[in-house]
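Tokenised fold entry reproduced for absentees:

. . .
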Amino acid sequence: MRKHGWMTVWIAIVVAAVFVPLTGAFAAGPADEGTQFTYTLPAPDSTQVQSYLGLKAMGPFTIKEVKAPVVVIELMSSTCPHCQAAAPNMNELYHEMQTDPGVKDVKFFALALADTPLGVATFRKAFQAVYPILLDKNHSITHAMKGLGTPTTVIVSTKSAKVLYSHPGEIHNPGGFLKQLKMVMALEAMNQ
């Protein structure tokens, strides 16, 4: 009987060692589908960006203030080599979104995490980034996104502030992402 007790303890330890770390893998991350994107975003850096996003003022704003059905946000950093490699595709995605009538009302911008004004300016110039890049100057969103890999691109509902889709890593196929965006928008429209 005593041998059976040790076997039970041993099995419990093995099961805990295997399954307890996995529970963290299934916990929602800060930009996972279904999570709320309720951050106060930094003020636009120009009246052009303010106008593009449909904001009433130049100050900090929330997703719900953007005049669009959904918003595409690339969470990035100017020093991230994957973000640098993705910049040409993000430029292409931005251009495609401007010309495709199916997504003409969708807004797109990058949010620079753990970054500096000089880093963002250098990135814009080096990679000829045509899309708006907002800088998390006080690092409040950066701290909330701790552990998030960059780049991560999310599609967020402006009505509910819910992340509808999350794409970790580089977007290699802007056209494919555009199709995904249209599908997400169609599903969101059906749920309203």
Summary: Confidence is low (pLDDT under 50) at residues 14-27.
